[in-house]
Amino acid sequence: MRQAGGAAFGICASGVQEMPEINRPLSPHLSVYKWQVANTLSILHRATGVFLTLGALALVTWIVSAAIGPDSYAGVQAVLAGPLGLLVLFGFSFAFFYHLGNGIRHLFWDAGYGFDKHVARMSGWFTFIAAVLVTLAFWLGVAV
Amino acid sequence: MSLQTPLGKFLGLGSAKEGTHHWWSQRVTAVALVPLTLWFVAALLGMDGYTHAAVVAWMAQPLNSILLILLVVVMLHHSQLGLQVVVEDYVHAGGLKVLILMLSRFAHVAAGVAAVYSIVVLSVRIAN
């Protein structure tokens, strides 16, 4: 890798400084980090957040169809209650409970608590396992 | 030595003239969403089946209408803020980034207006 320093900048004929084409190292240097719980859960927080955007749109579709009338509501409900619909709803529910729990974890961090390495790891595992259990409990509640 | 002007220091804003507004809005909406979403989950569990009649009767109750409108509006706002950060982080092509951010905003606002309009119309229809 070439050094990215002041000497690398050339002065072209017109006297205007031009940017040389240098293969600069990009930050963050993802490859040097060890894969662990903290970064997995952080990525999962973003992924569930993006996925839940679709969940919000599904909720809006559900509400709008109910307002339009029984026929359009039945159409939406048929899709949601189908095998693929239920799978997606299950995904939304887990994404929601995880994003909720981890979001609260983030709020604690924002307030300055829970930064200790062991505490952060523990709260991470707790949040993930709680999200799985609450998701299962929710669907049991729906079924009963 | 700081290169900030006295005015810049006083306003506490960065070069984008925005400061922490975006970050703070995301936190405020997150805090509001905790009770709102938990209320909605409880409501889903308490609902007497998910037939059109049951859902409409539930939605048309004043307290439910108000809380549902709050939920949808705050949720879409939070969603828009979050998606914006993700796009800004990963989409680097200038034109494409602006296009996606605009479409995301349009979609979120349109969804919010559609949901609020639907809930209001539904409630008024049931009340009359």
Task: Walk me through the structure.
The complex is a heterodimer of chains A (144) and B (128). Chain A is 69% helix and 3% strand. With 144 residues, chain A is mainly alpha-helical. In chain A, a hairpin with a 5-residue loop joins strand 1 and strand 2. Chain A is extended. The longest helix of chain B has 34 residues, at 94-127. Chain B has helices spanning 6-11, 21-46, 52-60, 62-90, 94-127. The mean pLDDT of chain B is 92. The chains are: A mainly alpha (144), B mainly alpha (128). The A-B interface holds A 46, 49-50, 52-53, 56-57, 59-60, 63-64, 66-70, 73-74, 77, 96, 100, 103-104, 106-107, 110, 138, 141-142 and B 27, 30-31, 33-34, 37, 41, 44-45, 50, 52, 55-56, 59, 68, 72, 75-76, 79, 82-83, 86, 107, 111-112, 114-115, 117-119, 121-122.
Helix/strand layout:
The complex is a heterodimer of chains A (144) and B (128).
Chain A: E1 10-11, E2 17-18, H1 37-68, H2 70-81, H3 83-110, H4 117-143
Antiparallel strand pairs in A: 1-2
Chain B: H1 6-11, H2 21-46, H3 52-60, H4 62-90, H5 94-127
Helix pairs in contact in B: 2-4, 3-5, 4-5
Concise account of the structure shown:
The complex is a heterodimer of chains A (144) and B (128). With 144 residues, chain A is mainly α. Chain A is 69% helix and 3% strand.
Keyword list:
heterodimer; A: 144 residues; mainly alpha; 3 helical TM bundles of succinate and fumarate reductases; B: 128 residues; 81% helix; elongated
Quaternary state of the chains: heterodimer
Largest interface: A-B, 29 and 32 residues
Judged by helices, strands and strand pairing, the structural class of chain B is mainly alpha
CATH class of chain A: Mainly Alpha
